[in-house]
Amino acid sequence: MNYHLAQVNIGRLRFPLEDPRMAEFALALDPINQIAERSPGFVWRLKDDQGRPSSFLGPMFGPGIFVNMSVWESLEALKHYAFQSGHGAYFRRRADWFEPLGRITSALWWVRVGEHPTLEHARARYDHLLEHGPSEYAFGMKDGFDAPLE
């Protein structure tokens, strides 16, 4: 296959990450990211400027927005990590740490093998999905557009 699946997931934190009410979530970031990196089909994930292995606030999406971006070999690999690994228990509790953001909190798109998207790419795909709905350019997990055939 010549393509991998990129994803961006955003959420508005209920409280600052340093707030004691966010402690359980904050303490879980590194272990959950390690689960991702050990998961079958994991390719890459966004790290901060210091190379720290954790998600971070993405100012280009707005104040208090938490951004996670990664690349996977397939939609099936991403779904397995998101819902069936140790990440799934935290995902099911997202309302404890994140405010409702609207109907779309993630966007997926295909990238060529070896390509790592930027936050600018992610913002463009996310905005396109919000404005135009699912397409081959940007879609959600339930939409599942196939990778290009080339």
What is the topological layout?
Elements: E1 3-13, H1 23-38, E2 42-45, E3 56-57, E4 65-72, H2 75-84, H3 87-92, H4 94-97, E5 98-99, E6 106-112, H5 119-132
Antiparallel strand pairs: 1-4, 1-5, 1-6, 2-4, 3-4
Question: Which properties best describe this structure?
Answer:
alpha+beta, 33% helix, globular
Q: Using DSSP, what is the number of strands?
A: 6
CATH class: Alpha Beta
Helical amount: 25-40%
The major sheet is characterized as: 6 strands, antiparallel
Explain this structure.
With 150 residues, the protein is α+β, with helices and mostly antiparallel strands. The chain has one domain: Alpha-Beta Plaits. Helix content is 33%, strand content 23%. The chain has 5 helices and 6 strands, in the order E-H-E-E-E-H-H-H-E-E-H. The protein has helices at 23-38, 75-84, 87-92, 94-97, 119-132; strands at residues 3-13, 42-45, 56-57, 65-72, 98-99, 106-112. Strand 3 and strand 4 form a beta hairpin. The chain is globular, with a radius of gyration of 15 Å.
Outline of this structure?
The chain contains 5 helices and 6 strands.
